[in-house]
Specification:
Blueprint lengths: L1 E6 L7 H15 L4 E7 H5 L14 E5 L7 H9 L10 E4 L3 E3 L13 E5 L11 H10 L12 E8 L3 H19 L6 H10 L4 E3 L6 E2 L5 H4 L4 E3 L17 H10 L4 H8 L15 H7 L2 H12 L1 H19 L3 H9 L2
Parallel strand pairs: 1-2, 1-4, 2-3, 6-8, 9-10
Antiparallel strand pairs: 4-7, 5-10, 6-7
Helix pairs in contact: 1-8, 3-5, 5-6, 11-12
């Protein structure tokens, strides 16, 4: 199976370091895999010195010309939505923010043209970002994609080289250009709209192929083939996954290498979690966790700790008063069910 990455990066971000780490995990378990990376011209110019070590991992590097007016983010989506124009044969597209956990030997049914995993492993009606997705698709004029209850993550995509799959990528690229003009430069709205327009061409793959550990991925972690560790919604939070930590990425940026300590984490990627980690579940707790109030508190704790302490102390005072109410414990128990 051919594996394909898309990289657009500069020295001011960590996309190259994520890619380098993913490639290191790929070669650890798949030393003979055919790996192709598609890079825009601006990114290629900056891949020198400490940022050139990726060449030891890839089979082939292809430099792709993109419209010069595009930002780095737009360039990434431009290339991603047209991969089949540069790569022949069946392939597995893999996002840079991933860790490969084992030898990849995918044997997908011949009935599968395009394969992907549900975003956060749940249907659209249960998705914590449903309202956000709805606003995106409305802005891009893709409302019809909300008529179905599946919303696929575009981080891992299986592509079978046939006319149906080529039609899908042509439609996806066309729709992405349309959505980009409407100010929606991310690619998942157009990805799912293309699926809708082509009458559900995407086949749902097992979550083990795209284990999104930040949301609902625990059910697939034990057998995960690819861990997808990054999520924009976690920007305010410290990642519980050690291989996604700032320290790991900074180490790669400063040295251009994978240290012995990082290699040890890669050898046991299913257990590379921080010791001080909690599992959060339950509708009441998750409603608070996903609320603007929670994000505000995290921001205050990070940027204005003294003010946070005042608020936290005040809330603790009122909670202690509530605890003296005989109904408090019963209410707490009832809400936990």
């Amino acid at each position: 199976m051919k594996c394909v990455y898309v990289l657009t990066s500069s020295e001011n971000d960590y996309y190259y370091e994520q890619f380098f780490l993913s490639m290191a995990s790929m070669r650890l378990y798949n030393p003979d895999a055919e790996v192709v990376v598609l890079i825009d011209e601006k990114t290629k110019e900056g891949l020198a010195g400490k940022r050139s070590g990726y060449t030891q991992f890839v089979t082939e590097t292809k430099i792709i010309s993109v419209p010069p007016e595009y930002s780095q983010k737009q360039a990434s989506r431009w290339i991603k939505t047209s991969i089949n124009n540069y790569v022949s044969g069946d392939f597995l597209f893999i996002d840079c923010d991933t860790i490969i956990t084992e030898k990849l030997t995918p044997v997908f049914s011949q009935e599968i043209n395009i394969g992907a995993v549900l975003d956060t492993h749940v249907t659209l009606e249960k998705h914590h970002l449903r309202d956000y997705f709805k606003a995106e698709v409305e802005k891009a004029h893709f409302q019809s994609s909300f008529n179905k209850n599946t919303y696929f993550n575009s981080g891992i995509i299986f592509y079978r080289d046939n006319s149906r799959s080529r039609e899908f990528f042509e439609k996806w690229h066309e729709l992405w250009i349309q959505s980009n003009k409407q100010g929606v430069s991310v690619d998942q709205p157009s990805f799912n709209q293309a699926d809708c327009d082509l009458r559900n061409i995407i086949t749902e793959l097992s979550g083990v192929w795209n284990c999104q550990i930040s949301h609902n991925g625990l059910n697939f972690l034990n057998n995960a083939k690819i861990i997808h560790y990054y999520a924009t919604s976690l920007l305010l939070l410290a990642s519980p996954y050690k291989l996604a930590s700032a320290d790991v990425l900074l180490s790669i940026k400063e040295t251009g290498k994978i240290s012995a300590g990082i290699t040890e984490l890669l050898r046991n990627p299913l257990a590379a979690f921080e010791d001080n980690t909690r599992i959060v579940s339950g509708k009441y707790i998750l409603d608070v966790f996903d609320s603007p109030m929670f994000k505000l508190l995290v921001w205050l704790r990070d940027c204005h700790n003294n003010f946070y302490k005042i608020i936290n102390g005040t809330l603790r005072f009122f909670v202690n008063i509530l605890k003296k109410n005989p109904k408090y414990g019963k209410r707490k128990l009832r809400n936990s069910k």
